[in-house]
Design goal:
homodimer, 220 residues, mainly alpha, DNA-binding
Chain lengths: 220, 220
DNA sequence: ACCTGAACACCGTTCAAGT
DNA sequence: ACCTGAACACCGTTCAAGT
């Protein structure tokens, strides 16, 4: 019985990569709370402790998930383009990744990603700001501000951040309970607050920031 | 032995409020991970299950924490002021709350707050946008964009969001490991990326957004 | 080198028993 | 009405035993 190619690898050997992928599938299918070492092991048909031969602990597994998603982020760029279109492309790439892994995105945002893959988006952002004519210190600040906006918008949209979220179980009845004297604007804008298109909202804020950058003084 | 005022209430009766306060103290002192029902009970010198007479479950306790912090947010406002100064005051009030409860802020952001207290900041934001001359739909979008920025900046600063965070254990050595050919801008801006003042960064993005709003067409 | 079961020290929560 | 201990069904992880 030679171990030739005719023998199908029914049970591929356990690797860190397979464990990370199983974790991602599990989270996307059953939600973040369903992620336990035991559940991942069951997903792979393996004993819990086998995982620890390839992953030091759960926190490191979560970092692996973050790493995988960030590494998979498509960062298309054409340096011949206008800096504004390049900036839009970068931010939308981040948003696309967030939409590809809606359940994982909270894990991705809250765990550090190893060098150098974690620095790729930063390098791109700084390159674009440089091309736009901003000095180094300003470029760094711009990168942080854009990132802060993209992060916050995404977390709010996903529902990871619930603060000021305007979608209670039954919006209409709850808004009706508000005292119009104390909340005149909220009650007047009840429909605008409950019905909204996330894409348009995201774009609105993004364009706000880009137009502000465009008005900033810069060299050349 | 009449229960007069001379008899000090050595052990004040358990209430939801006291439980929430104990949870907040515990989190601020020992971090978010230290928050367990058992630990809160120990904090109050009470059996674990006693908590359940006043709080249905842990998730509700966390919502109570969020509720308490948001309710305590000072929202000073003078409607006679310029809308720009009013907007700045509102955003900085949010930031101040985040700094008063640095360890709790993640809980606050990720748990829904009951009506009507959760709507107070929204009402304020919409009132200011209205005063600035924006129509209802635009006001809602502005509120969301400003909130997204404030949220993202805060979570990044606190370290709750680690993505693109530029503070590895030993920055200098790690940046040195990066290939300058692949990361020319990151390596060139190593010092700007590692040394930064959070206040100035926050203000930079905030003023960016406000100046963009100022340039937007509006009535009156 | 890799896998595994038993065990430990934790969780949140149900239940039945107390007052 | 409020408190409580025991118990249940979970966790992540250590350890010693297997191959």
């Amino acid at each position: 019985m030679p171990k030739s190619a005719s023998e199908p690898a029914v049970r591929p050997s356990l690797t860190r990569e397979r464990i990370v992928l199983a974790a991602i599938e599990l989270v996307e299918r059953e939600g973040e709370d369903a992620l336990s070492m035991r559940a991942v092991a069951a997903e792979l048909g393996v004993a819990v402790m086998s995982l620890y031969n390839h992953v030091p602990n759960k926190a490191d597994l979560l970092s692996g998930v973050a790493q995988h998603v960030v590494a998979g982020m498509g960062l298309p760029d054409d340096s011949a383009d206008d800096w504004k279109t390049r900036a839009r492309a970068l931010i939308w790439a981040f948003r696309r990744a967030a939409h590809d892994y809606p359940e994982c995105i909270n894990i991705v945002l809250t765990h550090s990603v190893d060098f150098p893959v974690g620095m790729r988006p930063a390098e791109r952002a700084l390159a674009i700001a440089d091309a736009a004519g901003f000095d180094g210190a300003t470029s760094v600040r711009i990168m942080r501000a854009m990132l802060a906006y993209a992060l916050g918008a995404q977390m709010r949209e996903i529902g990871a951040v619930k603060m000021l979220n305007d979608l209670p179980p039954d919006p209409s009845t709850l808004f009706a309970q508000l005292d119009p004297a104390e909340f005149p604007h909220v009650t007047a804008l009840a429909t605008e607050l409950t019905e909204h298109d996330p894409e348009t909202d995201f774009e609105f804020g993004l364009e706000l920031l880009i137009s502000a950058l465009d008005a900033l003084p810069r060299r050349s």
